[in-house]
Amino acid sequence: MRKYLIAISVILSAISFHACNDDDMPSIKPTASGTFTDERDGNTYGWIRVGDLDWMTENLRYGTPFYEREYDGVFEDPVYSEAQPVYSNETIYDFEADLAAYGNLYTWEEACQYAPEGWRLATDEDWKNLEKALGMSENEANEEGWRGEYVGTLLRQGEEGLGMALPLSGWAWQSGSYGYELYLSNVKEFGYFWTATEKEDDGLNAQTVYFRSIFSDYNTVKRYTTPLNVLMRARYVRDAQ
User: Fold this and answer.
1) 71 DSSP 8-state letter
2) Hey, which bits of the chain come out as E strands?
């Protein structure tokens, strides 16, 4: 088992939060559910049906583990940083356990390419339709930032509720500060998930794509964009069978 020593600091961006009464949170169940097996590696995943789409209820694990892959030929051992506390000394992290619990981490290109047969990486529009099915308004769904009271909480529910079970599985990025190491952070605090949708005319002269994020202390869900120099987890959808 590979374990790594770490010491890095993480800066978290400020985020607005809208408090609300959880007694008002709706109870929403999928219209169908089941499992399927990815024939490429034998991993079995759950799925739920919301509207006309089936959603995987686990993050994909397919492919070479993120901690064993090379990125642009400059990859070194990954390092881990806990989000709480912000700075962590001599922290030991079990990357194999992370993969088993949270699925693999992918570049955007990998996430788009690695869909199981019959499935595809969820688009920004797929996510918006799911969010609207959970009570978000059309106007809110089209906004960027944190939006949709209760929707983030509903997306985190397991079999006791919706069943989507989005985990607080963190994300990773490369840094050249100490030899292009791969930094994994925000595990157990944030969850980050790719969409298949690029943003048009962002004015940054760089390719950016939409993602979704959840946070342990918020009941909302974030819609925003990122350049492609990060790794996130991936959820896949298929047309209802």
Assistant:
1) S
2) 3-6, 32-37, 44-50, 53-56, 79-81, 91-94, 120-121, 145-147, 169-175, 181-187, 190-198, 208-215, 221-227, 230-231, 236-239
Reported confidence tier of residue 43, pLDDT bands at 50, 70, 90: very high
pLDDT at 66: 85
Q: What letter would DSSP give residue 95?
A: H
Structure tokens given for 18:
């809208």
What's the pLDDT tens digit per position in 102-140? 999 999 999 999 999 999 999 999 999 999 999 999 999
State the amino acid at position 77 in one-letter form: D
Distance of CA 90 to the CA centre of its chain: 27
Nearest Cα to 18, choosing from 193, 163, 215?
215
Instruction: Output the CA torsion 79→231→37→57 (10° steps).
Output: 100
**How far, in Å, CA of 206 to CA of 144, rounded?**
18
- 13-33 pLDDT tens trace: 322 333 345 668 889 999 999
State which H helix or E strand residue 126 sits in.
helix 124-133
Give the whole-angstrom CA distance, residue 186 versus residue 137.
29
Q: Around Cβ 121, how many Cβ atoms within 10 Å? A: 23
pLDDT tops 90 at residue 5: no
Distance separating the N- and C-terminal Cα atoms of the chain: 39
Q: How far apart are CA 140 and CA 20, in angstroms?
A: 17
Structure pTM? 0.82
